[in-house]
Write a structure and sequence with these properties.
11 strands; 3 domains; transcription; alpha/beta; D-Maltodextrin-Binding Protein, domain 2; LysR_subst-bd; single chain; 298 residues; DNA-binding; seven-stranded mixed beta sheet; WH-like_DNA-bd_sf; DNA-binding transcription factor activity
Length: 298
């Protein structure tokens, strides 16, 4: 049997993709991570990675061992779930969601943890496809997605319906808007911003809008909490779901301008079929559903 400690180190290394950050996450030294890797390779009898400067790729053997490591984790978590008391305030819970929803829901989850010292909640921002695959693999207990997945091993519960908002500086004058005025102001881009623009602008400016690649970019930022900042400073406009706006501390510096045709995203909580009955999963899902009503009824 493969050494469980070495396998866990290797699995974490594959997920993190960096020796130093793996050492930090596991409370080890970087040489310790390298030593575990060498010992595991000796036990397998084949190299597991191919180094390329400071990065690396997995060999076919490495890919197989990585899959085993993920499977071993899922089995161990299932075992812990089976033998532990089903207490809503005890245990570990992993949630995957968009960056905006993570920023919005995290303060509510922290309050739940304050009331439950033995409850451990981890929140990871990830793309929707990754969330679905990791819920299926058991890496996430709960996921929050904007499209209901059609998969026989998943359960989906409606959480909220949040509006996709056009966000302008508070200094913007008037209640009217057109693409020319927006382009004069400039777009504050972010990883989801171009897709949001295609959704909202194609709906409202069907004759004029030629695609997000034609928008005049003013600045770009990939940190969700920072996206409203240049807007608040009058440097441009952006498009965000309500959950990406409400946590911003300087609301008085922003202006949300409703367009004639509104666009909404329906949010769904997903879990592997049967796991929603676990007390802590059910409790956190109920908490998210209750608090998400502030974003809009599902």
């Amino acid at each position: 049997m493969l050494n469980a400690i070495w396998l866990e180190t290797f699995t974490t290394l594959c997920e993190v993709g960096h020796f130093t950050r793996t050492a930090e996450r596991m409370g080890m030294t970087q040489p310790g991570v390298s030593q575990h890797l060498r010992k595991l390779e000796a036990q397998v009898g084949k190299p597991l990675i191919l180094k390329d400067g400071k990065s690396f790729t997995l060999t076919p053997a490495g890919e197989a061992v990585f899959e085993l490591g993920k499977s071993r984790r899922a089995e161990e978590r299932a075992l812990r779930d089976a033998i532990s008391a089903d207490d809503p305030k005890v245990g570990e819970l992993r949630i995957g969601c968009s960056g905006s929803f993570a920023m919005w829901v995290y303060p509510h989850l922290l309050k739940a943890m304050q009331d439950a010292p033995e409850l451990v909640i981890q929140v990871t921002a990830a793309p929707q496809a990754s969330i679905i695959s990791q819920v299926l693999e058991g890496a996430f207990d709960l996921g929050v997605v904007s499209d209901k997945p059609d998969h026989p091993r998943l359960e989906a519960t409606p959480l909220a319906r949040e509006e996709l908002c056009l966000v302008l500086p508070a200094t913007y004058e008037g209640d009217g808007i057109d693409l020319a005025r927006l382009n004069a102001l400039g777009f504050v881009g972010h990883p989801d911003g171009y897709a949001y623009a295609n959704e909202l602008f194609a709906l409202n400016f069907s004759q004029e809008y030629l695609g997000s690649d034609r928008l005049r970019l003013r600045t770009f930022v990939n940190q969700i909490g920072q996206i409203p900042l240049p807007v608040a400073q009058g440097l441009g406009y952006t498009i965000l779901p309500r959950s990406g706006i409400d946590p911003f501390p300087h609301q008085d510096a922003l202006k949300i301008l409703p367009l004639p045709k509104r666009r909404y995203h329906r949010l769904w909580s997903i879990s592997r079929r049967g796991r929603s009955g676990f007390a802590r999963i059910a409790a956190v899902e109920a908490l998210m559903k209750h608090t998400a009503q502030a974003l809009g009824t599902p």
